[in-house]
UniProtKB/TrEMBL annotation:
Name of protein: NmrA-like domain-containing protein
Family matches, as CDD domains: PCBER_SDR_a
UniProt GO BP: lignan biosynthetic process
Record-linked SUPFAM superfamilies: NAD(P)-binding Rossmann-fold domains
Molecular functions (GO terms): pinoresinol reductase activity
Membrane-spanning ranges: none
Cleaved signal peptide residues: none
UniProt KW keywords: NADP, Oxidoreductase
Sequence similarity: Belongs to the NmrA-type oxidoreductase family. Isoflavone reductase subfamily.
UniProt organism field: Lactuca saligna (Willowleaf lettuce)
Lineage: Eukaryota, Viridiplantae, Streptophyta, Embryophyta, Tracheophyta
Length: 340
């Protein structure tokens, strides 16, 4: 913060204002210009907010394909009001993507990759082609933000195409020698915390709760805004270049039992617990439609296989809270208080 000075003359005040403007411009010039693709989505809107909050010149791709989706238009206009710049482009117009990419230093893609919404992961290959042709991007963060796909080769067949598609995009990025950072953000709070990880609802159970297995498999739970904050921290950090950033802050590594216990403590109410064996859980998936099967597969992989915590972070990865201890991340008892 600049010091307050006892100005006595109008010229002194003008000089101070001009100095402040120049300093702000210098700070902006030292931070990478970021283009967010998919900025109106669930993760994207948070990435835009975090990018602006951390002082990056922030651009949002305004896709012509939004048609009459007025909510998306309103979000884009709200971004503009907050200081973001809108760039028109289309995945059906290669040159428009190239032109957009040339205006920035970093591209972050947050397009949906879940079956119950839209599954657009491979559309990023067009963005990879544009980045390759533009030749100016110093970092690309593709749409991942969940389970590390490189560790899911032996996952359930249900919904496995998501991981396969993400690996196709990774291969294209690395073959094109585009500098990258992959973000593994694990379990988003809105999908796994507020509902105590119960399927088919986003609200906490009132009387009984299903516990997966013995409930002692460790997982990682994150506030979505913290995911965005950590993501933006990486873009100018050489320590995350060509690596995977794992969001595994120590206090958010919890078992299913831990999560339920936090809710019971907050509500001063004990829930009836129904323990679901792996066999029964898998059997319950057989008659579901494809989108639900994919969702249930994630629950199985997290709470039965323990895919989020069954490995150590090696040379190709970094842990977010270790790199950025200044970030005061949200603990899950705090997150759960929103549902009281």
């Amino acid at each position: 913060m600049l010091p307050l000075l006892p100005f006595k003359k109008t010229n002194d005040i003008r000089h101070f204002i001009n100095f402040s403007k120049k300093k702000k411009k210098t700070l902006e010039m030292s931070k990478s210009k970021i283009l967010v693709v998919g900025g109106t989505g669930y993760v994207g809107k948070r990435i835009v907010k975090a990018s602006l909050a951390q002082g990056h010149p922030t651009f949002v791709l305004m896709r012509r394909e939004i048609g009459y989706e007025v909510e998306k238009l309103q979000k884009l206009l709200s971004f503009k009001k907050q200081g973001a710049r809108l760039i028109e482009g289309s995945f059906s117009d290669h040159q428009s993507l190239v032109d957009a990419v040339k205006k920035v230093d970093v591209v972050i893609c947050t397009m949906s990759g879940v079956q119950f919404r839209s599954h657009n992961i491979l559309l990023q290959l067009k963005l990879v082609d544009a980045i390759k042709e533009a030749g100016n991007i110093k970092r690309f963060l593709p749409s991942e933000f969940g389970i590390d796909p490189s560790r899911m080769e032996h996952g359930l067949e249900y919904g496995k195409e998501t991981f396969g598609d993400k690996m196709v995009v990774r291969k294209a990025i690395e073959d094109a020698k585009i500098p990258y950072t992959y973000i593994s953000a694990n379990c988003f709070g809105a999908y796994f915390v507020g509902n105590l990880s119960q399927p088919n609802t986003l609200f906490p159970p009132k009387d009984r709760v299903s516990i997966y297995g013995d409930g002692n498999c460790k997982a990682v739970f994150m506030d979505e805004d913290d995911v965005a904050t950590y993501t933006i921290k990486t873009v100018d950090d050489p320590r995350t270049l060509n690596k995977t950033l794992y969001l595994r802050p120590n206090e958010n590594i919890l078992t299913h039992n831990d999560l339920v216990e936090k809710w019971e403590k907050l509500t001063n109410k004990t829930l009836q617990k129904v323990y679901i064996s792996a066999e029964d859980f898998l059997a319950s998936m057989k008659d579901l439609d494809h989108a639900y099967q994919a969702g249930f597969a994630r629950i199985y992989q997290i709470f039965y296989d323990g895919c989020l915590m069954n490995f150590e972070i090696g040379e190709g990865g970094e842990e977010a809270s270790d790199l950025y201890p200044e970030v005061r991340y949200t603990r899950m008892d705090e997150y759960l208080q929103r549902y009281l």
